Inverse folding.
């Protein structure tokens, strides 16, 4: 991940000296000679961290603190105070400054202060994203079937090795749940898990969604936006319904995976990231490759490990455990008093073929609980197609 430091100082020499030092340390640098320019830069979201001089030609530096405080990704502000102006520094810290340095700036201190500020920035980025991605119920039932056990075993190994994983399986078999499981069970568990549904995003928007854009990249791009690839740095990017991705975008994704770096839309700098890629599809990718709708090279990049989730009808011995789990969970959510399923009811569930797989099972049980006034779900409460096929 890269960080841009905004240096607010009216002395051009000072900006240049500090700027050169920071560029040498791998930071991006931008400058402002007064408060007005600093505000413009903040409005464009050009800066991750601000180095702020106190005395500026058009006002008092710390007044900028109130403005950064209101910004969503609150950039940490490091104040640069004249030697001995401790009172002012204390005041600034109370008002939310991240740190203060005294003039003349010691570069070693500056570097340490920036290290901490970078940590704060990356934490804020993650938190913002976590809040945005809705908290789903992510319980994962493995069951007894051999097929499922071996999938889960491979999933754990893939998580441990941080390799790309392609998750396939019919609709409702639990591809998203498995992706979450990989995240939780591997070394990236404390890092972000960023899902993106490629089918739900307009093809023209997908690139900027993934890679982000620079201010002015296109009409309406009035400030820089980070892409999900960058937000996922250190963690996992889950590309759901990957078959919906356009061929053009597939080529860009492949390049980003191979180079472990990409450019924001409208940007020139390569941004390096360390992201584990998980992809899911309920369409058969080899068929799409034959029809020239999916790139073969990307397919092989993604499926370093291919986890195929069996349809529920092939693991019917797991239905009782799954059904019991859904009864308890949905009962709790609905505040009902249902505790069990009758033997006849369970037999019907086990015999049914479940074209919609686990999602359909969960929906059938939710419906049954809505119709059930007793403590036990019976045949009469189940959807009619389930009773009639059994
Ligand atoms: N092993 C499991 N344990 C508990 N719940 C599960 C399991 N697998 C799937 N589910 C539940 O079934 C539903 C469908 O799962 P999920 O969304 O992961 O399926 P999917 O394979 O991604 O489907 P689609 O291809 O339609 O996107 C969810 O409500 C999920 O919570
Ligand atoms: Mg899904």
């Amino acid at each position: 991940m890269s960080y841009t430091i905004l240096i607010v100082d009216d002395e051009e020499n000072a900006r240049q000296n500090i700027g050169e030092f920071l560029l040498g340390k791998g930071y991006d640098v931008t400058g402002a000679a007064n408060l007005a320019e600093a505000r413009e830069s903040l409005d464009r979201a050009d800066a991750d961290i601000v180095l702020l001089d106190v005395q500026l030609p058009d006002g008092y530096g710390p007044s900028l603190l109130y403005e950064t405080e209101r910004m969503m990704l609150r950039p940490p502000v490091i104040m640069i105070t004249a030697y001995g102006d401790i009172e002012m520094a204390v005041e600034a810290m109370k008002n939310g400054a991240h740190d203060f340095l005294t003039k003349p700036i010691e570069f070693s201190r500056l570097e340490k202060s920036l290290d901490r500020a970078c940590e704060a920035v990356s934490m804020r980025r993650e938190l913002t994203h976590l809040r945005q991605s809705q908290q789903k119920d992510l319980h994962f039932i493995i069951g007894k079937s051999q097929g499922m056990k071996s999938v889960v075993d491979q999933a754990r190994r893939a998580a441990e090795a941080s390799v790309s994983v392609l998750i396939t399986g019919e609709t409702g078999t639990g591809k998203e749940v498995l992706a979450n499981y990989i995240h939780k069970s591997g070394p990236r568990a404390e890092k972000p898990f960023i899902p993106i549904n490629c089918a739900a995003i307009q093809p023209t928007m997908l690139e900027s969604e993934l890679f982000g854009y620079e201010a002015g990249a296109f009409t309406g791009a009035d400030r820089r936006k980070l892409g999900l690839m960058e937000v996922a740095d250190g963690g996992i990017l889950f590309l759901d319904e990957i078959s919906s991705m356009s061929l053009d975008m597939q080529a860009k994704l492949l390049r980003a995976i191979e180079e472990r770096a990409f450019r924001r839309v409208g940007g020139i700098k390569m941004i390096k990231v360390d992201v584990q890629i998980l992809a899911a599809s309920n369409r058969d990718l080899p068929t799409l490759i034959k029809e020239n709708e999916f790139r073969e090279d990307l397919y092989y990049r993604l499926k370093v490990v291919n986890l195929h989730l069996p349809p529920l009808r092939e693991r019917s011995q797991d239905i009782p455990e799954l059904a019991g789990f859904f009864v308890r969970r949905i009962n709790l959510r609905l505040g009902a008093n249902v505790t069990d399923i009758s033997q006849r009811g369970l037999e019907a569930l086990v015999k049914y073929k479940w074209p919609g797989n686990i999602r359909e099972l969960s929906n059938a049980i939710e419906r049954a609980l809505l119709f059930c006034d007793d403590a036990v779900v019976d045949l009469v409460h189940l959807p009619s197609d389930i009773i009639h096929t059994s």
Q: What stands out?
A: The longest helix spans residues 107-132. The mean pLDDT is 90. The pocket of magnesium ion (ligand 2) is lined by residues 175-176, 240, 280 (CB under 6 Å). The chain has three domains: 4-132, 146-308, 312-389.
